[in-house]
Structure formats: C-alpha cells, structure tokens
TrEMBL record, chain A:
GO terms for biological process: chaperone-mediated protein complex assembly; cone retinal bipolar cell differentiation; intracellular protein localization; negative regulation of neuron apoptotic process; neuronal action potential; non-motile cilium assembly; photoreceptor cell maintenance; regulation of protein-containing complex assembly. It comes from the Eukaryota. This is Bardet-Biedl syndrome 10. The gene is BBS10. InterPro entries: BBS10, Cpn60/GroEL/TCP-1, GroEL-like_apical_dom_sf, GROEL-like_equatorial_sf.
UniProtKB/TrEMBL annotation, chain B:
Its main location: cytoplasm. One of its GO terms (cellular component) is cytosol. GO terms for molecular function: ATP binding; RNA polymerase II-specific DNA-binding transcription factor binding; unfolded protein binding. The lineage of its organism: Eukaryota, Metazoa, Chordata, Craniata, Vertebrata. Probable molecular chaperone that assists the folding of proteins upon ATP hydrolysis. Plays a role in the assembly of BBSome, a complex involved in ciliogenesis regulating transports vesicles to the cilia. May play a role in protein processing in limb, cardiac and reproductive system development. May play a role in cytokinesis. It is found in: Cytoplasm, Cytoskeleton, Microtubule organizing center, Centrosome; Cytoplasm, Cytosol; Nucleus. This is Molecular chaperone MKKS. Pfam families: Cpn60_TCP1.
C-alpha cells in the first residue's frame, strides 16, 4: 500500500501531537501518566518519553518521533517545543501552498500530476530551508542575537566563575518544564545545592558535569513512600548495597578494590584438575585455606580496613575478613567500580604471588565508611577523598510513588546534560557574501566585522578590494548570487583558498583565460575537482547539474543555473561562486543564556522579519517569513493562560517596541535558558521539516526493510 | 533470533479526572477504604472464586496487597499508600482516605489545577509547620519515665484493627506483651547511638489469645527427638556457642570453572567427612557446648557431637543468623578448616520450652536485646491480622523513640487541624499567600475543601452515628444517630475521640458537617492533661505527619494529570 505523503498529512499528525504536548509545556504544563505493559506507572512531563510511550503507528509520526529522539540525544531538552514549532511550520507551509493552489487551479492540471508537481515544489522548499538553516540562521545567531545574550558566568574575564544566582535561575526555568508544579522549586533548589557542593571551586566545572552526567545512576538513591520534601543531599558516595561484613573503624580507612575472588579455586576455566588421592584433595583444600588466610592477613598487615569487590567472595574470605577486621562490600557493578576509580584514582588490587611485607601500592584512603539506613534498606556510605575536581555527594530522592521519583531522577540527569551542553562553546559557521548590498540593511555593520574576522592575514586588504570589484561585476551578470555552497566539512577553505580563487574570478572577466582557470581549480581537493569534471554536463542540463552539485555538497538553486545558459559563463560559474563565498566560523561562547518566556523566539522573529522585508528573492522571503511566524507559536502557548498586561499580544508589542528603539528588553519572567540549546532545537526542527518535505510517497511493506549489506563483507563470509 | 512483534499503539486519555469512569472507580475505592477505617470499621473478606486462602481484614496493607486495581490513576493512589505503609507500617488508610477526599472535594471547584495545587501546597506547609511547632495543641510529648503513653499507643493500634477479633481484656494483655517485647530490645548499656535489638514473632496458632507470652532471648523450633537428645546434656553456667554459616553437610561445591577429574577409587565424600570430623574434634577440644548451623549438619557430625555432649542445631535459616550472631556475640564461621577461637560466642542458658504442640530451644542471652513474642489467636486469618498489627505496633514504637511525640487519636487531631486551618485562612490570609499570585477568594475556596477533607476523614471513624465538634478545642465527639433532636449534649456525650476532654467541661458543640464559624482552637496544655487521663487514644507522630504530606502530594499529583497514556501491549 502506498499513501501520498503531503504537507496536509504531516500537518494532521503534527497537530494531534501538538494538542497533547501543548498541555504539558511551560510552567503551567501538567503531568502525563504513562503505564508500561508490565503495569508500572510512570509520571512524566518529558516530551521525548511521552512521544515514545504513545507507540505511534503513523509513518510520518514515527519519523517525527525519531527526529525528536535524535535531537534529544544531542541536547537533552526541548522535545515539546520541537513538536510545537514543527506544527507551526507545517501550518504555515500548508497555508502558503493553499494560496498558490487557488491561483493555479485554472491551469487544469490533473490531480496526480499536481501531486508530483507539489512534491517537486516541496523539495524545492526543503532545499531552501536547508540553505536557510545552514547559512542564514548561523548568521543571525552571530550577528543579531548575540548582543542580547547574557552569560551565566559572573564576570567576563577569562576565568569562568559560575554565578550562583544565574545558575539558580537557569535551573528553575529548566525544572519548570520538567517536573510537576508543586515540586519544581524544591527540586531546582536541590539540584543547585548539589551542584555547588560537588564543585571544588567555581571552575573546572566541565569535568564535574561530565562525571555526574556519566555516572548519575550511581550518584542517586531513590526512596519511595516518603514525601518529596524529605529528599536531601548526602556527602560522600552511597553504594546501592549492604556490607557483607561490617567492622566499625575510626579515622581514615585504607581501601582496596578487587575484581576477582580472593580464595583460589580448584580449577580455572579451561583447565582440568586431576585428583589422585584423598590426601591430595585434602592437601589442596588446606592450601586454599592457608592461601586465603595469608592474603587476608597480608591485607590486614597493610592496614586495609575496607575491601570493595566487584565479584561475590566465598564464605571463607568473608570469614577471614571479619576475623581481620576488614569490612567487605561485594558484587559492585562495573559502573560503581569505575566511578570509585574515577573519583579516587584507584586501580584494582592484583593478588600478589607471595605475601611479602612490601607495601601495596593500589590503596586509597576514605574518611569514613558506615552503613546508611534509608527506609529500612541498608546502604554502604563511603566518605571518599576525591583526587579530581568532583567532591562526591549523593542525592537521596524521595517521593510517594516510584513513578514520581523516576521523573525527578530523569529531570536531574537531564539538567546535568543541559548544563554540560551549555558549558561548551557552540560552534556556528556561516558564509557571508562579499557582496554587502543584500546585507547593508542589517543592523550591524557586518562588513567591517567580516573583514576583521575573516581575513586576519596581513596583506589581505588588496585582495579584499580586488574581489569586491569582482562582485560588482558579478552582480551585473548574475542577478543574484547567493551563497549556495556549503563547505561545512572543509575547514581548510578560508584564507589560502581565497587567494587561489581570486585570479579565477578575475579570469572570468577575461574569458580568454578559461584554460588557466581550469588548471588552478584542478589543484583543489578531490571533491572539488569533480565539480570541474562534471562541468560539461552541468552546462548541458541544468537538472543534472543540480544533482551533481548536491553530491559534492554544493547546493545550488535553480535560478543560479538558469542564469548560466551560455557556455562561457558556465565555465566560470563555479569559480565565481567560490570567490564570493567567505567562510565564517564563530561560536556561541560557553554559558550564553537568554531570559525565558519566548525571548529567543521573539528576537529571532524580529530579525527574520526585518531580513525578509529587505530580501530580494521571493523564496528566501517566504522561508524567513515562515520561520519567523512559526517561532511565535511558542510564546503564544507559554502565555496562553496569562491575562491583561501579561497576555501574549501585550508582551509581543512591548518587546518589539523595545527592540526598535534599542532599549533593553523587559522580561516578565525570571529564569534563563541556554541559547545553544534553543539554536540546536531550531536546526533540528528545520532538518526534520526538510525530511518530511522531501518524502513524496509512503510505501507500506510487510517485511522489515532489508539492510543493504556491503558486497565485500558478504564475500568474506 | 528475536521475534519482532508489532506494537499496538497506546491509548491516550485526556483530563482523566473529568471522566465518569475514573470518578466512579475512585469513589468505589474510597468506599472500600472509608468503611474499613477505625475501631468500628467494617471487615473485608478477600477470596478468589477458585477457592484457597480467605483473608478477613480491615488493614490497608493486607487489603491492598491482594486487591488489584486497573486504572492507572488508582494505581498511583494505591502505590503511594503501599509505599507509605512499607515505610511506617501505620496510617495507610489515613493516606488513602485523605487523598480521595482531597481529590473529590476540589472536583466541583472551577479553578485551574495549577492554582489548586499551589494552594494545597501552601495549606500543607501551614499544617506541617503547625504540627511540628511547640504551639501545636494536638500532639503530646512522650514521657519515657512511664509506660503510660506508649501503652496507650499500642492499645490504640490494636483497637483500630477489629479483624484481630480481640476482647477488651485481650487487647490489654497483647498490648502489654508487645510493649514488653519492645522494651526488651533496648540494650541496657546505651552509648551515643542506640542499636535496637529485634523482636521475633513466633506463631502459635489455635491457642487462646491469653496464652500469648513474651520471652527474652530466642526460640528455635525443634522436633521432640532433638529435645530428648539434648536433655541429658544439661549443664549449668554459660554455654559456649559456635555459629556456622557454611554448610556442614559434606557437600562439595565451588570447584571453579574448570573441570575436576577424580581418579577411580578416590572418594571425595570420605575426604570431606574426615574434614568434618576433624572440625568436630576441634570444636570438642575448644569446649563448645552448642553448635548452630544456618544450613544442614551432616548426620555423622551430629552424632559425633552429641556423643561428646555437644548440642547441634541446624537449619537455622538466614533470617535468624543476624540476631543470633548479635545475641551470642558469635561470628558466623565460613571455614571448615581451623576455627579461630575469637569467633565463638556464648549464651547464658539453653532451655527447652513447650508451647501448645510445639517444642522450642530457648536461648537466653547474657544481655537481652532479642525477644520472642509468642502470639496466639483462634484461627489463621485472625492470627495473620494480629501478627501484622503487632509488627505495626513494634515499628511504631521504634518510630516513637526516634521522635518522642504522639498525636491525639480518635479523630481529634484532624478536626482540630481543620479548625486551625480555617481560622488561619480567614484571619491571616496574607501570611499564607505571601506573594504567590493567588487571590484570597481562591484560598478560601481551597481551604474549605481542604478542611472538609480532613473533617470527613475524621468522620469516617464513625460509621453509624453523628459527629460533633466542640467550639473550644476543636475535638471530635461522636453521638448515636438516633438521639433526640433537642438534647442536653453534656449528658449524651461522654468523652471526646481521644479521651482528653470530658463533656462536663462546659463546652459548646456543633455538627461537623454543618456550616462553620471559625474559632481559635485553644491549647489545653495536653502535657498535664495527658498525665491525668489514663485512657487516651493516640496515634504515631512520624507516620501521621508523613502520611499527611504524602496524601496531599499524591492528591496534587493526580490533580496535575493532563493525560493518561496506557500501553496496551
């Protein structure tokens, strides 16, 4: 069975999802109760979890869910906003196509034909979206929005010191969307306390985040049946098991980790032990016993008071441990062992062949080790002395039901993921055009910044000038040359390459030199040479040109190819492209935040609208308008329940006024959110939309799609 | 190869609380738990159609253990109640009823759920702050110099479980036993922190309740034959004990992952047996009088030991190992080879005891921290209920040691608290609201719902009559429903629910369900009053306080639900 995929179908799906999600988004959002087939119940406000729990059937819905989960893997937040934004984008697209269809109706195209035509059109839009996402968006982030960014660090100096109040605001806003309304303040306070207790000083935080994110399961203990307000932070590490032997000891305690049984076994795997007599058997048992005894004695003589074992130790070992006053914790999971190793930098103890009196090197000290009783279950509580920047602390999460505790656990883990993201510089890169005309309207004098940013080499001035000259001429010939070339993965582009290009573009002015141009181009990297090779076909047919261009990661729009009808111009076309493009890489610095409450969306909306007004290409205008309007959908939902002065239109107008008069924006809500996260969300949504638009037919098959195996691999087998 | 099966899409239900189905099931559950509540609660008989065990109970833990609920919302409610019970043993029905009441009472109110939740939370913190404060008039500090209050506490628990089928006299007897059993677990020499011992409940079914008793030390059930074998070895003075956790049955396990090849004619059994007898010799050499083993002792070793006047008890089981090790001071031995003399312990005396048809070894320790409570009841179901109740009582006593307070029982705490909340919300709404964006009218609405939830919780204690409350202390008074319309209340009423106040104190009463004029509930210096009143009904402080929080939190959680997604796979 095959079903035509269309914007309408996708919109229907997205609207259903939106209606579910919009009830849970933002500070006013409510909880969702999910049941598992096993009968467990789970509370969640996590969009990703919610979407997965639905077990959606519809192919497009499944694709959307897959996109959401891949986005979540990257940033850990924003699943609900994802759906809302996607829905608004689709709605906008649908409205736009409806209008066009009305005008086209007179053309009397057959319905089937029209479907295909529509698909081509969507594909076209999808490409426009792609180019928007990869070039224009980054530009906006860097040039327009960046001056509104706030930082989570308390000072702008090189040293990153975390500002507690900003972190509190950030976390509060995060938990607003993640946990129930009656607990979010408490949980965010708990998280903040935990964070600051775990850090040695306010720097080196990345390491702490990384460790907590990786080992979060081991760092929290869940207790059901107690009110949430009983949750607390405990200094030290809590292991999720009881002592096998507990011998109270004071002062610093020396500890070793073992990963094998201390008692020697009769036979190890793969060997055979031959017993010839009873005496031999007794002798070997006696030897085993003596050996175990000797090792434990040796450990005691080295002042070891605690033995952490990743395996179950036999009764004999436990017995001798108790005799020698050594506490034992058995059956530690490999995650727990690796966490302990990370914190105290201790490697497992290797059993010595002979128990000589020499010192064991692999020991560490703990401040205390004692049993901890939580709700009549016993745990091991270790006061590890950290050798890294993480001071071990554990969170005890309480709640009336397991589902709620799990929700809080997930939210805390997600918060660490989010923070980990936030503290990384987020790279953005975009191309600016040498031709500044299109951009002169933009609020910043980006031309200046481009010059300083992009061409730091000495002596570039002349070069710059020369190719600006080219641009003017290009403009005359090619009506609009947008930078359609995406060179994300080619970091070697700036600077040096520009130099090679410049003669090329000059050569364009003198068409007799085409040969030479080709030569210089062939010196370029492999995939670019291919473009040159394909040039003949490129000239012949614009459609093939388009596809080959895509293959080499060079997206080209129709118009551009259309312009190049004559051979001579075609020859130089790729050249002139390259000469015009300048690669700009920048980054959203670590710790960039914006106030919550749709600030990011309104800002971007404002700049996009401005941009769209001055844009010359209709398709570009359309895309930016589309995105600009869709972005407003999020604040609209956030302010849904607010009335009067705090209703959405009021806020919107006030913000726009503030922007137009370049006054500082007034935020009605306290709380901050990560810019990088928001940015990533927007790109993910656009990518998802591109995916949806590029599908024209959904074919239902009975079998699982077969994986296409590599032929070579098959042969080897 | 794994089999792939298409997953069915889940069922998504929006705004679950508005659906008729959920409301109906919720009210059924409420009906069940409410009717069980209190000393005059109705019993429930749980059985399955195919026959088998029948359980008669009114306790939340027993009830919900066998009751399965289908709707996810109810699952949340019952799960939170069960988790509470597993933490505190007590106040399970309290949590469930309060939670149901809170949900039901706000259904008719036309406010956004977030507002309701916010206000519920504020009211809860108002309550907990009050209950924890010194000014609280419904809690009594526990005086450990007398057993008065503790005994009242145990009695209250026993009377509130009618399925135990105890008479007044039996209640007094059992509560004295439970309290004694608990007191025996407190070590005499108390250091910085006390580690309580353990009370072990020993079943003795089919006897009269009055035959129940408590013994210091530990009882280990045994057969008659073993007892007879032991009797001639009677010895005065302390006995030296060896406690084994390793099996002494001569089995040979744990040979490692490789193979073990045994030549023809070599008998490992004999080898191990030799080892066991060697061990026996060592024990005899070390003058051990009593050998106990968690697992099985080989018959020939047993024979050897008994021929040397050593008593051997095997199959102790893992649950008794820890109290045994603590009580005797012996260290569980995990070796068949040489045993260190340091791992031996001792008991003061070993006796045989006979109760009903059962025979026991009775181990009397040097320092008593372990006690055995022999519980008798007429039949199985009543015994099960009594056992659960005694466990609850023991747990509650432990909790009371940690936080030495009790709440007034019999519904008085609830009505008093409701009166307090009403008074506070009406007179000082500003101090409650702070700056949370809720209006005073909204607060009044929700406070009324909250208070009436508390009051109808108290009201569910009385299944036949009417409830009154006095307008001075805000206590709970019940009266028969067929009382004449115009009455002289002081004559008709005798004492309030908790027994602190008598009707002769010149109070004025009003019906609990009638309209209220808020008043300031007064503090009556419960300390002195408590000492004067001998027969109080009191509740566990820790369990009730936490129960209140859990109930409100759970209700908030359920009110906050926007969707229920049911995975039907």
């Amino acid at each position: 069975m095959a079903a035509a995929a269309s914007v309408k179908a996708a919109l229907q799906v997205a609207e259903v999802l939106e209606s579910i999600v919009s009830n849970c988004v933002g500070p006013e959002g409510r909880q969702v109760l999910c049941t598992k087939p096993t009968g467990e119940v789970l509370l969640s406000r996590d969009g990703g979890r919610l979407l997965e729990a639905l077990h959606l059937d519809h192919p497009i819905a499944r694709m959307v869910v897959a996109c959401v989960s891949s986005h979540l893997k990257k940033s850990g937040d924003g699943a609900k906003t994802f759906i809302i934004l996607l829905c608004h984008l689709l709605r906008g697209l649908d409205a736009a196509t409806d209008k066009e269809e009305d005008s086209l109706i007179s053309e009397n195209i057959q319905t089937h034909g029209r479907h295909w035509k529509n698909c081509c059109q969507w594909k076209f839009i999808s490409q426009a979206l792609l180019s928007f996402q990869t070039q224009v968006l980054d530009y906006f982030m860097h040039q327009c929005l960046s001056r509104h960014f706030l930082s989570i660090f308390s000072s702008s100096t090189q040293e990153k010191t975390l500002c507690r109040s900003s972190v509190e605001l950030l976390l509060e806003a995060y938990f607003c969307g993640r946990v129930g309304k009656n607990n979010h303040k408490f949980i965010s306070q708990l998280m903040c306390d935990y964070l600051f207790k775990c850090m040695v000083y306010e720097s080196g935080i990345e390491e702490v985040f990384e460790l907590v994110d990786d080992c979060f399961v081991e760092l929290n203990v869940s207790v059901t049946g107690l009110p949430v307000s009983d949750s607390r932070i405990i200094a030290g590490l809590v292991l999720h098991r009881d002592f096998s032997v507990y011998c109270p000891a004071d002062g610093d305690i020396r500890v070793v980790i073992v990963t094998e049984t201390i008692q020697p076994l009769f036979s190890i795997s793969g060997s055979e032990f031959v017993l010839n007599s009873e005496a031999q058997f007794q002798a070997s048992q006696f030897w085993i016993m003596e050996r175990t005894k000797a090792i434990m004695k040796y450990l005691q003589s080295q002042n070891i008071k605690l033995l952490l074992s990743s395996v179950k130790q036999p009764d004999l070992v436990i017995y001798y441990a108790e005799l020698n006053g050594i506490s034992v914790v058995e059956c530690l999971s490999s995650e727990e062992v690796s966490l302990i190793q990370r914190i105290i930098g201790l490697s497992p103890f290797v059993l010595p062949q002979t128990c000589s009196q020499h010192e064991i090197s692999n020991t560490a000290l703990v401040k205390f080790c004692k049993p901890l009783i939580l709700k009549s279950k016993r745990y091991v509580h270790l006061g590890l002395i950290s050798t890294c920047l993480f001071i071990p602390h554990c969170v005890v999460l309480c709640g009336p039901v397991q589902g709620l505790v799990e929700q809080h656990e997930d939210a805390l883990h997600g918060a660490f993921k989010m923070l980990r993201q936030l503290f990384k510089d987020f790279d953005i890169s975009y191309m600016t055009q040498a031709n500044g005309q299109n951009y002169t309207s933009s609020p910043l004098l980006h031309k200046n910044s481009r010059e300083s940013d992009l061409l730091p080499e000495i002596g570039n001035d002349s070069m710059q000038r020369s190719y600006q000259g080219t641009v003017v001429k290009n403009e005359n010939e090619l009506t609009t040359i947008r930078t359609r070339l995406i060179v994300y993965s080619n970091p070697e582009i700036p600077g040096v390459e520009l130099e090679t290009y410049i003669p090329c573009s000059i050569s364009k002015l003198t068409p007799t030199d085409t040969y030479e141009t080709d030569y210089t181009l062939k010196c370029l990297s492999q995939n670019k040479t291919r473009v040159i090779d394909d040039r003949e076909s490129l000239i012949e047919s614009k459609f093939t040109a388009n596809s080959t261009a895509e293959n080499t990661r060079i997206g080209m729009s129709y118009e551009n190819v259309q312009v190049t009808k004559s051979v001579s111009k075609g020859n130089t076309l790729p050249v002139s492209y390259k000469s015009l493009k300048s690669y700009c890489s920048s980054s959203i610095p670590a710790g960039c935040v914006l106030p919550v409450g749709g600030n990011f969306e309104i800002l971007l909306h404002y700049y996009l609208l401005n941009y769209a007004k001055k844009c010359q290409q209709s398709e570009e205008t359309m895309v930016s308008m589309l995105i600009a309007n869709a972005l407003l959908g999020i604040p609209k939902i956030l302010y849904k329940s607010k009335k009067g002065n705090y209703s959405f239109p009021q806020i919107y107008i006030r913000t726009l006024q503030a922007l137009q008069t370049s006054q500082p924006m007034v935020s009605t809500q306290t709380g901050l959110e990560s810019v990088a996260g928001k940015y990533q969300l927007l790109t993910s949504v656009l990518q998802c939309l591109e995916k949806i638009l590029s599908i024209d037919l959904v074919i239902n098959i009975k079998r699982q799609p077969q994986k296409v195996y590599d032929q070579d691999l098959e042969d080897e087998l | 190869m794994s089999r792939l099966e298409a997953k069915k899409p889940s069922v998504c239900e929006s705004k679950p609380l508005t659906s008729e189905r959920v409301r109906a099931t919720l009210s059924v559950l409420k009906g069940i738990v409410t009717s069980c509540y209190g000393p005059s609660g109705r019993l429930k008989q749980l059985h399955n159609g195919a026959g088998g065990h029948v359980c008669t109970t009114s306790q939340s833990s027993a009830l919900l253990h066998s009751l399965s609920v289908t709707h996810p919302v109810l699952k949340i409610l019952t799960a939170s109640m069960q988790n509470h019970v597993s933490c505190f043993s007590d106040c399970g029905l309290f949590v469930a009823i309060l939670c149901c009441n809170l949900i039901e009472n706000v259904q008719g109110i036309d406010l956004a759920p977030t507002t309701i939740i916010e206000l519920n939370k504020l009211l809860l913190s108002l309550c907990t702050d009050y209950l924890k404060s010194e000014a609280c008039a419904c809690r009594i500090p526990v005086d450990f110099s007398s057993t008065q209050i503790l005994l009242c506490l145990v009695q209250s628990i026993l009377t509130s479980k009618p399925a135990c089928m105890l008479t007044r006299k039996e209640v007094d007897h059992i509560s004295a036993l439970v309290l004694r059993a608990f007191l025996l677990t407190i070590p005499e020499k108390a250091g910085d922190h006390i580690i309580l011992g353990k009370s072990i409940i020993v079943p003795l079914k089919g006897q009269r309740v009055i035959d129940s008793t408590v013994l210091p030390g530990m009882l280990i059930e045994t057969s008659e034959v073993q007892l007879i074998r032991m009797l001639p070895i009677k010895k005065s003075g302390a006995l030296k004990v060896a406690l084994f956790c390793v099996s002494l049955s001569g089995d040979f396990s744990d040979t490692g992952e490789g193979t073990l090849a045994v030549s023809y004619g070599v008998s490992l059994e004999n080898a191990v047996l030799d080892q066991l007898v060697n061990l026996g010799r060592q024990l005899v050499r070390d003058h051990i009088d009593l050998v106990m083993c968690q697992k099985v002792i080989h018959p020939s070793l047993k024979q050897f030991l008994s021929s040397h006047q050593v008593i051997a008890i095997d199959r102790i089981g893992v649950t008794l190992m820890e109290p045994l090790s603590k009580m005797t001071g012996a260290q569980p031995i995990g070796s068949l080879g040489s045993v260190s003399p340091r791992s031996y312990g001792s008991v003061k005396d070993l006796r045989s005891a006979e109760f009903g048809s059962k025979r026991f070894f009775h181990l009397i320790p040097n320092e008593v921290t372990v006690s055995s409570l022999l519980l008798c009841n007429r039949n199985d179901t009543a015994w099960d209920e009594l056992k659960l109740t005694c466990q609850t009582a023991l747990h509650v006593l432990q909790l009371t040691i940690k936080e030495p307070f009790v709440f007034l029982g019999g519904g008085c705490t609830e009505t008093h608290l409701a009166a307090y909340v009403r008074h506070k919300t009406l007179n000082e709404p500003g101090s409650i609201l702070k700056h949370d964006g809720c209006t005073q009218t909204e607060l009044q609405l929700i406070a009324e719902a909250f208070c009436s939830a508390l009051e109808s919780l108290a009201g569910s204690l009385e299944h036949d009559g009417e409830i009154l409350t006095d307008r001075k202390y805000g206590h709970f008074w019940s009266v028969q429903s067929d009382s004449p319309a115009v009455v002289n209340w002081p004559d008709l009423l005798s004492r309030c629910g908790c027994g602190l106040h008598s009707s002769q104190e010149e109070l004025s009463w009003s019906f609990l369900r009638s309209t209220h004029h808020p008043f300031v509930p007064q503090n009556c210096l419960p300390c002195e009053a408590a000492n004067s009143a001998s027969d109080l009904t009191v509740d566990c402080f820790t369990a009730k306080l936490s129960g209140l929080q859990v109930a409100v939190e759970t209700a908030n959680l359920i009110l906050d639900l926007a969707y229920v997604i049911e995975d039907t796979n």
